[in-house]
């Protein structure tokens, strides 16, 4: 048996280690519970990598009906279908009906691959108690096709906002302001994840921190509208997220 003095030194050392461990646990707990924020995700190009399919679809529409607009598919990224019709096909109800029918068929048969790392990242946010929202310009009919293709999609989010939930389309910041308000937060305390120029502008103008995904545009093109640019979520961690909020 160790002498009493040695046992006391061992107990004292173990106690100091325990105090340090408890302090570390308390610090982590305080960081999580004090982080009053929400993560607001666009859908296409951020959660699901569908933008190449949409680019091909709208490029065809542009070539057929607006041949003078060489970059039509790029121009409308992030816009609601209603806004596209109002801006480019206003008053032409027959053509609007034709495009609606074509996009309905297209979206019913498109693929919805997840952007790399996004599911694991969102699950980590949920484990840390961070509310998450999908804030998309897509309408409910398109989202129904996505839900059917990805049965776990809805479980990733506290709430899903669609085109029907706001009157003004991106680049207006309304959708992100509404999402922040839904959680009882100021937009300045939230983080927006976007890929399109109009979506990035909406996030920036809402006052939120903005993470730009270079899934569709080159990093240098979107950088002026972002706090951080990432190619996907493989290297973007919870620590990366919390660091944005200071």
UniProtKB/TrEMBL annotation:
Superkingdom, natural source: Bacteria
Pfam families in the record: Hydrolase
Keywords: Hydrolase
Database matches in SUPFAM superfamilies: HAD-like (SSF56784)
GO molecular function: sugar-phosphatase activity
NCBIfam families from the UniProt entry: HAD-SF-IA-v3
Name recorded for this polypeptide: HAD hydrolase, family IA, variant 3
Source organism of the structure: Alloprevotella tannerae ATCC 51259
